[in-house]
From TrEMBL:
InterPro entries: MFS, MFS_dom, MFS_trans_sf, MFS_Transporter
Protein's membrane topology: Multi-pass membrane protein
Domain Major facilitator superfamily (MFS) profile: 6-391
Lineage, uppermost ranks: Bacteria, Bacillati, Actinomycetota, Actinomycetes, Micrococcales
Keyword Acetylation: no
Record keywords, A-Z: Membrane, Transmembrane, Transmembrane helix
Name this polypeptide is given: MFS transporter
Amino acid sequence: MNETALNKALIAVFVIFGLNGLVFASWAARIPAAAEDLGIGAAGVGLLLLFSAIGSVAALPLAGSVAQRIGTAGTVRAGGITTSAASLAIAAGLNLGSIPITAAGLLVFGVGIAGWDVAMNLEGADVERRVGRTVMPKFHGAFSAGAFVGAMIGAVLSALGVSLSLHLLGILTVVCIAVLIVPRNFLQLPHHAAAGGADATAKPSRFGAWREGRTLLIGVVVMGAALTEGAANDWVAKATVDGLGTSESAGAVMFGIFVAAMTLTRWFGARLIDRLGRVPALRICMSASLAGLLLFVFAPNLVLAGVGAVLWGIGAALGFPMGMSAAGEDPVHAAGRVSVVSTIGYMAFFVGPPVLGFLGEHWGVRNALLVVGAAMLVSIAFAPAAAERKAAPEPA
């Protein structure tokens, strides 16, 4: 493939991952503000998050098929525009103090984010395979960098008293323009045709990947990693405010600390994976994440909680991208396998946090986070499923 085109696709994937993180954090970092605008507690926030989860889980199994039909670029555009439209509804709901309108917006938000996410991971797996070295963690690092920027914007706007609805309106304007332009540099092909060769015209069975034992086990590994990351994304800010009696701005900064640690690890962690292999890297990361979670939950002050957030972020960094790389190794079957692994992972990523919200209503948000520790242990146990397999060489 033309090296210039490949480099352009590489940069475009970085940008799209970063935009996805920016959009997600613009909501996640200011969940306490949304709770205040709507007058709800942890259980109410959990119920709202459940609507986003329902939208995502419904869309994820179909996202791979959509990408096969219209290409990863078209799927990212559709997801970005859907997410932007949903942000308008969320902003309107918050401005009106309407829980039903906000919930409907989050439902559509989940649909858009799901399609966007699967498509960018498919494009990222294609680019990684063609580049010939581990770059998926760096793509996810771009997501985390976007989320960090989003969190810091949220903290500043919160301190300035800018409403969440106005914040979301500004973000969606940027996103709408970017998702129409940036994917022009993607590889563009409907994904099942990207592999080339005799198998390129053979469309994989839609549900075939759901019958593959290794794919399902990779999904289990990603499930624990996704729950670890998702719980932090949705609850670190709220847990800091409620558990340590700090301000909303401090909660947003704590979320930013978590995301910064995760971003740096994703950027530099590719070398760790290439040197040790996926399985040892997964086990090291998940162990660090478990230690950080426990420290964050039991820390008596903001400083120790911050140290826990750093360890948590370091540990949560590589599980999801390694799972995407493992699922996308075979380009012919990548769309189906990435869709399956994404569906399993995002069920934990999106459904887990609302459940934690309901538990947090009774136990306190920080204590409810202990449930995540069990999922980490499961990921550590099944890490060998993500071991590297040599892909068949591409035709000349």
